[in-house]
Structures are given as structure tokens and as C-alpha cells.
UniProtKB/TrEMBL annotation:
Residues 189-231 form the tRNA pseudouridylate synthase B C-terminal domain. This is tRNA pseudouridine synthase B. It comes from Streptomyces antnestii. Belongs to the pseudouridine synthase TruB family. Type 1 subfamily. NCBIfam families: TruB (TIGR00431). Keywords: Isomerase, tRNA processing. InterPro entries: PsdUridine_synth_cat_dom_sf, PsdUridine_synth_N, PUA-like_sf, PUA_sf, tRNA_psdUridine_synth_fam2_C, tRNA_psdUridine_synth_TruB, TruB_C. Responsible for synthesis of pseudouridine from uracil-55 in the psi GC loop of transfer RNAs. The gene is truB. GO terms for molecular function: RNA binding; tRNA pseudouridine(55) synthase activity. Residues 32-188 form the Pseudouridine synthase II N-terminal domain.
Length: 302
């Protein structure tokens, strides 16, 4: 008996990414699971890291660029006393310093300096493009270069636990269990590097788990094995409602919007960022933003 081919549903898939996979690896796997080439991700996650990776399937890929800009939350472990080439545990060790004398007060002061609106230099082994070439490619080829500092916001940087440890080379180190809430574009391994540098002992990230991207949390994420068994897709309308301000319009306005007319936008939506527009039947029509009092379309779905 032959099975009927069911169309791939539009929507978001919240993946609990395994360690060792690149974000592109997860996208490639999802293309096989969802049986479509039209899959993308909202913001990368380093291979070492695990946790929430938001994928868009079919028409939901049009939401991804806007979702990538939302706030993110992480749990991680920072090792004080060692620097690595990549600022995380995957890179070669470049220096070791006894960190056993570092006190809690100094750590708290260092964390405070890295909280709020700060300027951050991303890791050289990152996907940042310098004159059109990925930073990690330049680094691997041994090129000398500088990455300009960028403004990021660290809303919260909390140290939950400090553990004495001894590294493989015998150096006394400190392992900090931390949580970070930050803006898009913030590198947690750069926070680890800069905290260690500020304390004079060096530092790098040894573990990282992303627990939230915007409104999407770990409790709604599924592993690739679970998704292979049952593809769980958040419908595009639900995804838009969760992530963006909602604007319900009447049937007349809905028709005008879908015909390319720029609607007058109520003042309450000014400065709200992307706004999800729904018709009277609850159909998600478009993602718009206010521009000179009018609704400028970012992506149309209706």
C-alpha cells in the first residue's frame, strides 16, 4: 500500500542542537526530515554549543531574518586560568596561569564591567566577514588582522557557582557556571576571554547551552532524533504571534494590504519593530513595520 505524499507544513521547528553539529549540519538534516530544500536558521550556534536553534520551513523562512535579531539566553561554563586560540574548548591552548588566587569579589567586578551596553571584539575564529572574507578563514590561514569592536547589550551576566579544578596540564583553574541574557550578535566565548583577560589569568568557554531565542525556549525544543520520529512544526501564524506585536485588521484593510496598498498605521505601533498583521478570520497576512505613519511590508504571507 503506497503512502500519500503530504505537503511539508509551513512553520518553525525549534531544535535542541546536539554538540558537534554546525548550524548548517542541522539545516541539512532538517531538509531530509521535512523533505524540502526550503529550510533556514535564525542565527548560528557554534558546533560545541547545544540548545535552542530556530529553523524555518517553507514560507516561515521569510520570518528568520527578523527572529535572528531577538534576545538570547545561555547557560555556560567559563574556565579561568587558560586561553585558547578559539576562546573555547575546541581551540588549541595558548597560555596557562594559576587562577586559584582569584577572589569572588574580583570576579564579580569583572562581570559587572561586561554587563550592560558594551563594546565587544568577536573571536577571530568566528563567522564575521572582514572585507568579504570570513574571519575564521583568515585565522586558519595564519593571517594577521583585527576585528573592530561592536556594540552589544548584555542584559544579565550571573555567576551561579565557582569550582576549583586542575587542568590537564596541572594548572590550578577556576570553573564558573554562568548564565547570560544578551542581544543578538553577542559572543559568549568573547565574554569568557575578556573576563579572564580583565582578571589577568586568561579565560575560555568550556560548555555552552542556549536556553532561549526570543520567545522560543528549551522546553519547546526537540532533538533531531525526536523530530525524525515526529516532525513538530509551530504553524507560522503561531510563531508570528509569539514573536511579534499583533495587529488585527478588518476585511477591507486586509484586502488593501494584500493588493500592495500601504495602510495607515495606528500610532500605538510606532517604534514597535516588526508587527504581525492578521485578518478577521485569524489568517496571518504579513509582517510590516511603521514607516512615516504607513505600514511597510517586510514579508507577505496571505
Amino acid at each position: 500500500m503506497t503512502q500519500k505524499n503530504t505537503p511539508t507544513p509551513d512553520g518553525l521547528v525549534i531544535v535542541d542542537k546536539p554538540s558537534g553539529f554546525t548550524s548548517h549540519d542541522v539545516v541539512a538534516k532538517m531538509r531530509g526530515i521535512a523533505k524540502t530544500r526550503r529550510v533556514g536558521h535564525a542565527g548560528t550556534l557554534d558546533p560545541m554549543a547545544t540548545g535552542v536553534l530556530v529553523l524555518g520551513v517553507e514560507r516561515a523562512t521569510k520570518l528568520l531574518g527578523h527572529l535572528a535579531l531577538t534576545e538570547k539566553e545561555y547557560l555556560g561554563t567559563i574556565r579561568l586560568g587558560q586561553n585558547t586560540l578559539t576562546d573555547d574548548a575546541e581551540g588549541d591552548l595558548t597560555s596557562s596561569t594559576d587562577a586559584s588566587g582569584v577572589r569572588r569579589e574580583a570576579i564579580d567586578a569583572g562581570v559587572a564591567k561586561l554587563t550592560g551596553a558594551i563594546m565587544q571584539v568577536p573571536s577571530k575564529v568566528s563567522a564575521i566577514k572582514i572585507n568579504g572574507v570570513r574571519s575564521y578563514k583568515r585565522a586558519r590561514e595564519g593571517e594577521e588582522f583585527e576585528i573592530p569592536a561592536r556594540p552589544v547589550t548584555v542584559s544579565s551576566f550571573t555567576v551561579y557557582d565557582i569550582r576549583d579544578a586542575v587542568a590537564e596540564d596541572g594548572t590550578p583553574v577556576l570553573d564558573l557556571v554562568v548564565s547570560v541574557v544578551c542581544s543578538s550578535g553577542t559572543y559568549i566565548r568573547a565574554l569568557a576571554r575578556d573576563l579572564g583577560a580583565g582578571l589577568g589569568v586568561g579565560g575560555h568557554l568550556t560548555a555552552l547551552r542556549r536556553t532561549r531565542v526570543g520567545p522560543y525556549k528549551l522546553d519547546s525544543a526537540r532533538t533531531l532524533d525526536q523530530l525524525q520520529e515526529e516532525l513538530t512544526v509551530m504553524p507560522v501564524a503561531d510563531a508570528a504571534t509569539a514573536a511579534f506585536t499583533r495587529w488585527d485588521v478588518d476585511a477591507k484593510r486586509a484586502g488593501l494590504l494584500l493588493n500592495g496598498v500601504r495602510l495607515d498605521m495606528p500610532a500605538e505601533y510606532a517604534g514597535a519593530g516588526p508587527v504581525a498583521v492578521f485578518d478577521p478570520a485569524g489568517v496571518f497576512l504579513a509582517l510590516v513595520e511603521e514607516s512615516k505613519g504607513k505600514a511597510k511590508s517586510l514579508a507577505v504571507f496571505g
